[in-house]
Amino acid sequence: MNNVCKRITGRFQLISGAIFITALLFVVGCGSESSDFSSDSTFEKIADFDRVLSISDVQDIGWKKGKTYDVTGLDNADSAYVGFWDLPGIGSLNYEIRVYPSHQIALEKGMPFAQDASGSGASLNAEDAMWDDGVRDRRIIVGGGSRGSQNPRYGDFVILGNIVILCEGRTSEHSLDQCAPFVALIRGEGA
Q: How far is CA 65 from the centre of its chain?
């Protein structure tokens, strides 16, 4: 069903009149099959928080810290880590957490680095990346063997208060959909 939705969405501009309305209703119906987590709550990619968060707040929801990065060159960051969290029904996903002193600094200084490290245009080698520590952890080989291609691990990012979260996923939508329950837990809303 999802492949059908993708094909219809890709040809969306070619459809007109009554066919357009029928296709639109079908696409909306297909969209309702996405994750149970994001459809029930309002998810904001960038949101302030009522207090300054620490890595302990993230660990308290079950996120397991894997590596601690050297933040030299990651402008104004207090700390940065990569680790994993088990998304119910999906399994273990990587999340890179970057901690800043305030929400404003996370926006002004952290966002450009997050944009550079995520999405289809992510910098996946040390020579091109704005910040090169952990760049190897930000890529994934898809396809395996000699035919495998290097792709970004993180399809997008979230800024919650003073932390920047790089979220694993093949596309921005997929990434944010998988990040929604993780962020909900940090906010104390449950998943």
A: 17
Sort residue 133 into left (φ over 0), alpha (ψ -120 to 50) or beta.
Answer: beta
Q: Considering only CA atoms, which of 4, 7, 9 is closest in space to residue 20?
A: 9
**Residue 135 vs residues 12, 40, 113, 119, 125: alpha-carbon distances, Å:** 36, 34, 12, 14, 6
CA distance 191 to 179: 10
Mean pLDDT per 10-residue interval, the chain, length 191 residues: 41 34 32 37 86 97 97 98 93 96 98 97 95 94 72 97 97 96 92 62
Look up the pTM and report it.
0.76
How many CA atoms within 13 Å lie on the side-chain side of 109?
A: 19
Residue at 105: amino acid letter: I
